[in-house]
Records
---
Amino acid sequence: MRIETLAIHAGRRIDPVTGAVSEPIHLATTFERDEDGGFSRGFEYIRDDNPNRNSLEECMAQLEGGYDAVAFPSGMAAIVAAIEALAIEHPGMVLLPDDMYFGIRSLLNETQFGRKLDVASVDMTDLSAVERACKEHMPGIIWAETPSNPLVSIVDLSEISRLAKSVGAALGVDNTWATPLLQRPLDLGADIVIHSLTKYVGGHSDMMGGIAAVREQGQHLDELRAIVKHRGAVMAPFDCWLALRGISTLPARMQVHCENASKIAAYLEAHSAVTRVHFPGLQSHPGHEIANKQMRNFGGMLSFEVDGDRAEAMAVVNALRIFTRATSLGGNHSLIEHRASVEGPSTMAPESLLRASVGLENVEDLLEDLDQALRVISPKP
Ligand code: PLP
């Protein structure tokens, strides 16, 4: 089956009791034992297993082309578990990209787990810099994020995988911004892929979840399962159900996100009040060729730098009427944020940069909204 069909059918079954075409939400915390004390129906206790979680995991494993997938209550929980699980067979340093989701930097600075990690960071778009970092640090794990947050840079996953293999490192990839519809890192050599399901997969800014999909059976998969069961990092059944429902419409939604973002990026690139647009669909983007090679489309995320500084960027955000001032991404509503103020003093985002999650509204309305907002700093379109 093709991925659009898998998005609707993988992991789903008609309810055997009622014939319901949408799986019921199973809130039961415990399940009846057989007379001999066994669990022939496969379920014992909600922390171990839940039908909605199983369906979500099966579906995401198939979409990512993985052996299996393990759900977590958030994207961050999936990232922490993935790093811990990979470190069993691949101890040592974790090599991180210098542009990545800010939550990982906060994890490193603000938790005991993070402070204990041995980490180095590198510009992952620069393959010779990655090669040098590999030789210098001999990392156990390389962590990649592409497109990256917030600069929307593109990492060549096949090449990073080759470099990882050359030093015996495992490769983990955060595929949240691309989704399996646009990019499948396991096919390109990654060992583990994570998602924040809170974003495009859920798709409506109303649920939270995470998932780690693995290429192969092994100790890292067992560890992911053990983290869920014994540390209790369990995704709730209703959130699993919402995520699975989101996946059904993910292919159709991604198409509109991508089309809208492409049109907006082209408009912004031609605008006199915009000095730079970060969107891999633009020919001018340094990662355009790689994105063309490894992605099916260019995604719904873009950032742009306005002509000015923080004050001008804030003025534009505050003048927008349809884009909502809010963090996060991947939902039906268009969102925009001044990333430097969201990330705080240690940010690497330029003060003039705005990050937009382009939603599913009519793109003409979004363009008109940007047009009137940019007039606040430049009367010329
Ligand atoms: N990975 C990326 C790329 C993200 O953008 C985010 C959140 O913004 C996360 C991970 C963390 O996800 P969650 O908020 O579900 O923990």
Note: Residues 74-76, 101, 103, 145, 149, 174, 176-177, 196, 198, 208, 210, 328 surround pyridoxal-5'-phosphate (CB under 6 Å).
---
Amino acid sequence: MQTRTYTWPLLAGLLLAGLLLAGLFRANGGNQLYQQQFYVFGTLVDISIWGLAEQQASEAVNAIANDFQTKHRNWHAWHSSPLTDLNQAIATGQTRTVQETSLLPMLKQAKQLSHQSDGFFNPAIGQLIGLWGFHTDDFSDNLPLPSPDKIAELVALAPSMDDIKINGNRISSRNRAVQLDFGAFAKGYAVDLAIEKLRQLGVQNAIINAGGNLKAIGKKGEKPWLIGIRHPSGKGVLAACSVSGEESIITSGNYERFREYQGVHYSHIIDPRNGMPTQGLTSVTVIDSSGARADAASTALTVAGLQDWHRIAQQMGVKYVMLVDEAGTVYMNPAMAARVQFLPEKLPNIVVSEPL
Ligand code: ADP
Ligand code: MG
């Protein structure tokens, strides 16, 4: 694995500035970078726009912020929402009509991605996710672990996206144990829609970063955007990667949402095969033109683990993957290895796989 040198302080500046400053506008020599943050989807969203007048950039960001708030309300998995209404209908064996513009396209895409992932990405396991205590806004409490019997019962009911039937905009499920939770791909899906909207608003160069779920378009002036991939510890940056054109970089990690019980760390990504939090990988990064696919894949590959990630990545059609295990070893396919740069003095142990 070859490493290239690059301006590390610039990268740190990009990320940290993003965390500290709201509505910042820098204009020098005709180059404009507009940055703004807001909190939605349980995370900080950071938008950078290059090359637009401040007023226009600020209006574009406000439009996205409003959209994200609406989506957050519509897709919420535990506060009352159109999604919890649908879940309620499924649990009681009823058919429900959903909005063609909101839940329907999302359901269709989730079904397809789940199928391609062999069900490792399985947004139908909302009951298991709730059982493990992840349907909460507060992670400070030390919840007791769910009972093995209850976990086994839910696993045996095998809720799957294949159970969902879509007839026009009427949704039903042949399995009442299905409970939809789009936490694993809502942010990737949302950044796809937001980038589309930014383009309609005349923005050609931008980054939207929803807590490590990022999509970029265009460039930062003459240069490609330089993106930091967060360290699995949640502190600092593991590697950097440049993007130009339309690309999503999505990292699934355990640094933001996890549970701790009697000193043991429990991941918020659940293996649908045994109903248990995944172990082994601390972060998975996927780069893809589709944020929804990259997000679904980052979760699916975390479940697939070192044994199955390569096959599942091929099935899902993703071309750039980086996985980090508990020992800090980094696994990548050759195309990903050719793109990312590590800090020379912090070079991890790297294993490059067969091409995807
Ligand atoms: P992040 O939210 O940190 O970006 P993910 O994209 O991996 O991470 O999403 C994790 C969330 O997805 C969990 O909090 C839960 O709501 C849901 N989830 C957990 N396990 C699965 C799974 N196997 N398939 C689909 N969704 C899952
Ligand atoms: Mg994901």
Note: The first helix runs from residue 8 to 20.
